[in-house]
From TrEMBL:
Ca(2+) binds at residue 59. Pfam families: Mn_catalase (PF05067). This is Protein CotJC. Binds 2 manganese ions per subunit. Binds 1 Ca(2+) ion per subunit. Belongs to the manganese catalase family. CDD domains: Mn_catalase. It comes from Brevibacillus agri.
Length: 189
């Protein structure tokens, strides 16, 4: 199904060690509105979506896995030169005690990822509206992360991810219209 190119979808550069920012970025790694939850949500929903839009869910799910890889790279680069004391000061002492420097699917507050983050109603329109909301929440989180760093290199990668969330939201809105038209429903947008 996939052909993996051994490169990131978009370059990830950071200009300095910033453990606190790495902690905040884990929100997009293992949080409710993060990349893992989105990828798994869309991959799962594709089994109950009409064939007309199934490819869209597969495409976006695949891209979300690429975004997950970018976030992991950001976290790694922001923490690779950090001391244990810096990890503790940033609130990652418990994480270090449990996982050393390994990434773990949890949000910025340290709450582990859970399958309850994955919404699937089985109604294509309801699921697509859920997907639109998920993309908009991810977009908002990326904006807040951009606002929290002065690292212009990191901001560049985060802006790329924010823009991709906007594109995904628009694509899901188009899918809603396609299915509503097919079902003869009146649009509410």
């Amino acid at each position: 199904m996939w052909i993996y190119e051994k490169k990131l979808q978009y370059p990830v550069r950071v200009s300095k060690c910033d453990v606190k920012m790495a902690k905040y970025l884990t929100e997009q790694y293992g949080g409710a509105d993060g990349e893992l939850a989105a990828a798994l949500r869309y991959m799962n929903q594709r089994y109950t979506i009409p064939n007309k839009v199934i490819g869209l869910l597969t495409d976006i799910a695949t891209e979300e896995f690429a975004h997950l890889e970018m976030i992991a790279t950001m976290v790694y680069k922001l923490t690779k030169d950090a001391t244990v004391e810096q990890l503790e000061e940033a609130g990652l002492g418990a994480h270090y005690a449990n996982h050393d420097r390994a990434l773990f699917y949890n949000n910025a507050a340290g709450v582990p990822w859970t399958a309850t983050y994955i919404a699937a109603k089985g109604d294509p329109i309801a699921d697509l509206y859920e997907d639109i909301a998920a993309e908009e929440k991810a977009r908002a989180t990326y904006q807040w992360l951009i606002d929290m760093t002065d690292d212009v290199d990191l901001q560049d990668s985060l802006k790329f991810l924010r823009e991709r969330e906007i594109v995904h939201s628009l694509r899901f809105r188009e899918a809603v219209e396609i299915l509503k038209e097919e079902q003869g429903r009146k649009t509410i947008f």
